[in-house]
Specification:
With 206 residues, this protein is of the alpha/beta class. A five-stranded mixed sheet has the order 1-2-5-3-4, with helices on one face. Helix 1 crosses helix 3 and helix 2 packs antiparallel against helix 3. It is elongated and about 70 Å long.
């Protein structure tokens, strides 16, 4: 059947909403757990990148299948109930997924625990303003964000919020953007090595 502009727009919206929901559900839970297991068993960055590529492929194919199925329901529907249910449901899940992504403090239990690597570096989840205040009072020199501004629209917003909060509570904010599973991030790693050479600094990384 020939796709009209209306059908194309409908499919793209469903694909976007379903894909965002699938990706968010996986990355805030199962994917984080998988990464922790891989790193615990020292599987290496190459195998980790392969697993992530496989997961992205599964998300894409799964999204395509579900979107086509929902679109077929819309084509067969002779009442308003099914279209309204599909559009309302996909929109609701999309908004909820975006909200969770832009407000990671709501997901602290799924983001991993705080881990003290050594006297200089502590790794943990995205901090909110109150946590930044606590870090300053505990004597941390700076908070180091590994979020990347290229991952729009989510991470630029989080970077902006954290930078503003850090300024308000009086703790230094350092952004060392990294793109996991995409490149070697050598420039960012070199900056982290330079921070490690400062034996007097104490940093919270996320």
């Amino acid at each position: 059947m020939k796709m009209s502009p209306k059908n194309i727009i409908q499919f793209l919206w469903i694909f976007l909403a379903v894909g965002t929901t699938f990706a968010t559900s996986l990355f805030i839970g199962p994917v984080r757990a998988l990464i922790e297991i891989l790193r615990k068993h020292h599987m290496g960055p190459g195998f980790e990148s392969f697993c992530m590529a496989l997961i992205i492929l599964v998300v894409f194919l799964g999204t395509a299948v579900v979107s086509r199925w929902l679109r077929s329901i819309l084509n067969r529907s002779s009442s308003l109930f099914e279209p309204v249910l599909i559009y309302f449901g996909t929109t609701l899940f999309f908004i909820f997924s975006i909200h969770l992504t832009l407000n990671p403090s709501h997901l602290q239990t799924n983001q991993g625990n705080v881990s003290i690597f050594n006297h200089q570096f502590t790794f943990g989840p995205f901090p909110d303003k109150e946590q930044l205040q606590n870090l300053r009072e505990e004597g941390y020199s700076a908070v180091v964000s590994l979020l990347h501004p290229a991952l729009v629209p989510f991470e630029p917003k989080l970077i902006h919020d954290e930078k503003r909060w850090a300024h308000e509570v009086g703790i230094k904010f350092i952004n060392i953007p990294m793109l996991p599973w995409v490149n070697e991030n050598e420039k960012s790693l070199e900056i982290l090595r330079q921070l490690a050479q400062d034996n007097h600094g104490r940093y919270y990384l996320h």
